[in-house]
Request: fold
Amino acid sequence: MRTVRLLLLALGAAAAAYGGWLLLPQLGTTLPWLIGGPVLHDLLVAPLVGLVGLALGRLVTDRLRRAWITAGLLASATVLLIAVPLLWRPLSAPPNPGLPDRDYPLGLAAGLAVIWVVTAVALVVGTVSRRVRNRRADRQ
Reply:
């Protein structure tokens, strides 16, 4: 088993070294992204998520509602994270017919709207079903 682990370690190190070698010509443009991502996360995203989590915990006391709102926030954050390069990236070449023909801000707004409509419907359905369940329990 030790031999297999050492072999996998050597293969992984060789693959990482090869990837680093391929990255060398593009290091000048890639380095800001490699450094900026973790710095942006640690200085902006993580504290913001922590503050939203604290506020959500204080404002929404029902665990089911808090779970649905958290799911909506996580889905929104994921969509926003995917959309950032499409919104801020300058075109690297002349437009290719059929590729950049979308209105990305409108698509982002529509995606976020769908996420929050589904979240709101889930909250309403959960509240109604809980009330119906409580009424049935009170009758019996």
